[in-house]
Amino acid sequence: MPSIDIRPAVSNDIPALIQLTHSSETSHTWQMNNVYDEGQIQASFRRIRLPRPYLLEYPRVPSAIADCWNKKDLFLVARIENQRSGYLALEIIERQSARVTDLVVDEPFRKQGVATALLLSAQDWLRSNGIYRMLLALPIKNEAAIALAEKLGYAYSGFMDGFFGNREIAFFYSYTFR
């Protein structure tokens, strides 16, 4: 496994980060089923295989990070052999928890531990700032991100229809650490 360097972003990083591959391909999604009975509403999800691979576009315009990267509470850059390989941005919510707003790994560097390293570095930073809960909002078609969240011990904590700009349903995962 390559050595991954994680550091806070600087302005010189932004043009290169915008150029990273933000989209990914998926072959599965979660299908939502609603049941309305008297006195009860039930929503359930089941994982289904798509008939063909689907290109999952990033839910935000990558160039928008140029305007907001320095407004985030934490913005980390991952590098492998001095090449920018990914980034993570998060916002602190009422000094109690943090929500990851962006987690991107460039296509050539996927499946090499970059996303894990970014999440663990963010947890270390949060811990040193007295915050022990991190939230992820993941598109239901992003099977790689959902698998990563579950692998790292994040717990499913709900969903919201139309959460992202592209109106995609978000699964929420949370992790409490010490």
Strand and helix layout:
Layout: E1 4-8, H1 14-18, E2 24-37, E3 40-56, H2 65-68, E4 74-80, E5 83-93, E6 97-105, H3 114-128, E7 133-139, H4 143-151, E8 155-160, E9 170-176
Parallel strand pairs: 6-7
Antiparallel strand pairs: 1-4, 2-3, 4-5, 5-6, 7-9, 8-9
Task: Give the gist of this structure.
This protein has 178 residues and is α+β, with helices and mostly antiparallel strands.
What are the salient characteristics of this protein?
single chain; 178 residues; alpha+beta; Aminopeptidase; 7-stranded mixed beta sheet; two-stranded antiparallel ribbon; 4 helices; 19% helix; globular
Helix and strand pattern: EHEEHEEEHEHEE
Number of domains: 1
The largest pleated sheet is described as: 7 strands, mixed
Structural class: alpha+beta
CATH architecture: 3-Layer(aba) Sandwich
Work out the helix count: 4
* Radius of gyration, CA atoms, in whole angstroms: 17 Å
Strand adjacency order, main sheet: 1-4-5-6-7-9-8
Q: Report the sheet-strand fraction.
A: over 45%
- DSSP strand count: 9
CATH superfamily caption: Gcn5-related N-acetyltransferase (GNAT)
Helix content: 10-25%
CATH class: Alpha Beta
Could you say what the CATH topology is called? Aminopeptidase
Instruction: Catalogue the unreliable spans.
Output: none
Kindly report how far apart the N and C termini lie. Answer: 27 Å
Name the overall outline. globular
Average pLDDT for all residues: 95
